[in-house]
Every structure is written in C-alpha cells, then in structure tokens.
Amino acid sequence: MRFVIVTGMSGAGKSTVLKFLEDFGFFCVDNLPPDLMPKFIEICNGSNDIENVALGIDIRGGKMFGRLSKILSEVMSESGKFEILFLDCDNEVLLKRYKETRRAHPLSEKGERIIVGIKRERELLNDIKNHASYIIDTSYMLSRQLRVQLSDIFMDNKEFNSLMITVMSFGFKYGIPSDCDLVFDVRFIPNPYYITDLRRLTGNDKPVRDFVMNCEEAEEFSKKLVDLCEFLIPNYIKEGKNQLVIGIGCTGGKHRSVTLANVLHENLKGDGYSALIVHRDIDKDSKK
Fold first, then answer.
1. Which of 7, 133, 203, 287 lies in disulfide reach of 259, CB 3.0 to 4.6 Å?
2. Final residue of a structural domain among 154, 179, 208
3. Strands, E, within the chain: which ranges?
4. Contact by Cβ (8 Å): 128, 84
5. How many domains does the chain have?
6. Is 271 within the bounds of a domain?
7. Which pLDDT score, from 0 to 100, does residue 47 have?
8. 149 and 10 inside one domain
9. Residue 286 forms part of a structural domain
C-alpha cells in the first residue's frame, strides 16, 4: 500500500491535490487528527479494498498538529512506508488568495493581519517541510500543471527532484519581481516595440520571436543562459534548494523578455526539470 501524507501551507492547494489523487485511485481523507493516524493506518492495512491512501493534515488540527512529527516517527518505525507531499507557496501569493476568498487565516488571531498568520504557520511547518519526500511550490502553477506534476510522481513514478523552476518574464518599468533568485536584463537586444507591425504583438507571436532571435546577440545570450542554468540547477538541487525563480526583464515585459523566457523554458523542460513559465507583465499596456 502506498501511503501519502499531504500537508503544507494553508491556501497552497491541499484540497485540490487530494481531489486529483482521488481521481488517480487513492483513498483520500482530509484533516484527520494526527493522534488517529496509527489506528487509521492499521484499518487501511487490514483492508483488501484499499491500495493507495492519501491523508490530508494541516494546522487546522490545532495543538494536535504539534505532535505530528512524533507520530510520524512512530508510524515510520512500525511500517516504514509513508511519503510526505509538502505544498508550498509564496507569502504574497497566499495573501492574495486569502483576500480574494475573503477568508481568515487559521493562525491569525482576531484583529491580526493575514500575513502574520502566514508567517506563523511557515515557522510551525519548517520541521515537517525538511522531512518531506516531495515539495511542490504552487505559487504560479495552474491546476492542469499541478495535475501533470502529481501524475508524474504518483502514477508514472518518474524521478522527482524538489526543485521547482519558474522562468518569469517581466518589465523593468513595473519593477523587478521580489522573489527572483536570478535576474537577467535583455534590454541590450533591439526592441520590436519600435517596429509598427510588431508593437501590438508579444513574444508569444512568431513574428516577434523571429525578430528577436534573428539578432546575433539574442541567440548568443540564449545559449550562454541555458549553459549557465544547466550548470547551476544540479548544484542547487544538491544543496536542497526547492524553488528557483529566474527573471528575464526588458522594458515593458512584452516582447524581448517573453521571447527569451520561452526559449529558456523550452530548453529546461527538455532536460526533464519541473519548469513553469510565467509572463508577469505581458498584458499590461495592451491598449497601446
């Protein structure tokens, strides 16, 4: 029997993950108090109808959640069979999700700001995150991308590393993304904005991509960037880093940065990494 514990930051998508795992044939239970885990596992092991189990546990368990690490150690010593899937998410993205749903954070006391509860929860979850089998950052991940990631791990049993790579295009005029680990400036490349037929298009359109990549400097830069990332990423994985955000910026975040971010993303995907593409500012100034 495959036994998976799904936990992580509140608002990071645990309920969505449990629904996907249920679609994959897992018997799913959400918010079971940790103290009931040993008995629950005993029942599952004694059933001939249950092959895979996913158990959602989070800080809604209150004080009982604090005993989770001890209970997991006991379960490990008895069965030796369980995996921990930890769902992470950027603080600012979580804050935005809570504001959109108008829900209070479980650890924000009355009158406290939501971000206080988020930071408090992150501290409490630090230990279990360090012991996680898989860490998935859902900050910029679409539901379909999350489903594919879970299918790779739990259905196809593909090799998984916990480093989630996000390649993000942006416009310097709107500010550098605060969560970028690496930032590259491509404003040295000729700007399609000044070509009338290309101004309203984006780097996702073939004419703009051809214009940018036909520039000798862009092609050379792209090769060197891919080479640098292919060197850095295995070393980041070795050091246990679980999230890498690579920012590529131009003036408005619509043409050059989008093109080169797409090229980098295509190359990293081809190397088997878990890579997402985000174009932060592509729709801004769309009326111009």
1. 203
2. 154
3. 2-8, 27-30, 52-56, 83-88, 134-137, 164-171, 182-185, 243-250, 274-279
4. yes
5. 2
6. yes
7. 81
8. yes
9. no
